[in-house]
Amino acid sequence: MLGALAGFLVVSAAAPVPVADQHGFSDVLRTRAGLLVSSADGTVRRADGDDLPVAATTGATMTALAASADGDLVAAVGDGAVTTSRDGGATFAPDPSGGRIHAWAAAFAGRDLLVFDQDGVLWRGRNGAALREVGKRLPARAFGAVFADARRGWVVGEDGMLAVTRDGGESFSLLDGPVQGDKEKRGGLRAPERREISGAVHAGGALYVSSAGGVWRSIDDGKTFEHVFVYEQPRKICVRMSARGAAVAVACTGFETSLYLAADGRTFKPVPVTDSMHLMSVAFDADGGLAAVGAHELFIRATAAGGRIAYRSPTVDEWIHVAEKIGLEERPGGGSLLGTVRDEHGAPIPGAHVSCPGYAEAHPGVARETETAANGEYRLRWPPRYIVLTVRKEGFASVSLQRDAESDGPTRIDVVLSRPVGCSGVVLGPDGGPLGGATVSLSQRRAADKRPWQIAGARTQSNGSFSIENIPPGEYVLGATAPGYGETTEMVRAPAAAVRVRFGAGEIFGTVADARGEPLQAIEVELFRSADRGFGPLARVDVDAGGAYRLRGLSPGECSLVVRTPTISLENLSSEAGTARFRLKPHEGPEYCMEQPVTVGSARLEVPIRFDRQPPITGHVRDRAGAPVGGAVISAQSATRCPAKGTHAADDGSFSLEELDPVTYRVWAGPVRDPHGRSASEPVLVRPGAKLDLVLGER
After folding, report:
1. Taking residues 594-611, what's their average pLDDT?
2. Spatial distance between the Cα atoms of 369 and 269, rounded to a whole number of angstroms
3. Does the N terminus or the C terminus of the chain have fewer Cβ atoms within 10 A?
4. Do 2-325 and 617-698 fold alike per CATH?
5. Count of CB atoms situated within 10 Å of the CB of 586
């Protein structure tokens, strides 16, 4: 959501700019005093019909709103400002600490205001009192927060962060959310693209989170998720959500199809609003209607049947004028997408919802969705060069198809919808016994994907059984994982029942110790497939108090065993039997990392790990004339999953790379803002203890 807010709360002049030159609405919230809207122009506004008069002025970009469950307390937070209300949003007063807080998320735990700043630091205002800094509680920037009651809540943010608290925000623990982050939570590996969880809401006893892929739903407090709404507009995301009873609405940043409503909390349907774009937030108003806000000061009022733009900036009018000026008439013989939607018996399906995101953004007036006619036919104008077509109809399983558009004529895509089916079975451990608490995923492989895309999931019962419903018939990759176990997969064809998934018999175990032979405790052990560079681990486990680890249920193959210190750990704060309270704690002390190739077979394999102290890599940096280059940057990058190292050369050109891991490094030196036009040295491959003379080249 940070990317969305930064990109869509547009600044109309080069920085630095006066706040008045900024425009864009970031959040909307229903309070006792009416609908409130936070704005990038440094104001909080209160809806009066279709008008939005100013209710409070802060002088800073405002990013989020929050209200207590009883409605008495309201807060607006932003980039260097916090303003609060004790009368349900009727009047506001600035918080004394607001100028020090740069926040994108806030929530109330009971009557305590929690504000999460951009560095993961928590600020708390108890029962309407001024905010006080509590300390760092989160490993990443927070973009949304929600509480189900005074003690139980969740915070979401960048890098796929999902954290839960069960003590009113006194402590947090990380959960394995549904979105892959920019870095894996424990591994530090780069994902193919930046992913973040943008919003969170609690409705009907379920937790909902939103991101670039749509909306996910969890009925077990965030332990497992079901992907209930797939949003497939390229480079667009679903941002903030709102709930009323079991109904859930979500605002997304696409064109035309940017507002969605699920009256039952599961089936999301578009709310058509002509010329809508870049929505950031949505709220249910007092009579059950919807209010949505977005970039370019867009304010929308809507019902399930559709909506209208009640208020917008001149920028939106300019975009609409451009679209009308271009003229969106179809070219003869081309520029259209058409086809017929039928059931598995060949009968046409009327009233199916057909959508195709990704149209040229300069044409916000083009319809990107339609419904099939009585004969099952549909037609859309001006499809993108690469088509992602989604077809939905109640009572049928949804279908998404991808292909390139025809260059010299209309593109025809016929679609067959099938009745939804299910897949059920049992997960077995290596010994053949049922394995409860395992996570089961159902995925389909799409063209050009290195790995299948997960479309559904479940968790096994104590007897190892699982059941996944509402999927289209076809071939799937059924996968199972469990803590301390590997990953096992089976190919299945749905509908399928009595599927048996069994973990492999391979096992790796050992003890992790330091140079003196003393067992290490704050260590995690992960197993990766050697061929799957860039993907997550097959199995992961923390060492026990004696430094021992054990990975079970492994399938044969060439792998890499990665043993390292986690950058973030959970500090146990439990004080009573039967309770579990944790706090995120950055690692302190020596950091270890080692990657070792292993061959997994069908038997137990002992792999002891010992971290011997590694000597530094030392040397000098000179230019081609032999003169020392002080301040040069020396970089040492490993070909393994262990982190890179770096340092600066002293005035005499000498350097020493310390705290090295027992791996081979690729070392080179580069100048910093060098006025003589020198380039980086040639990289060399060395082990710890090497002595180097690095010579800068010439451009």
Report:
1. 90
2. 11
3. C
4. no
5. 10
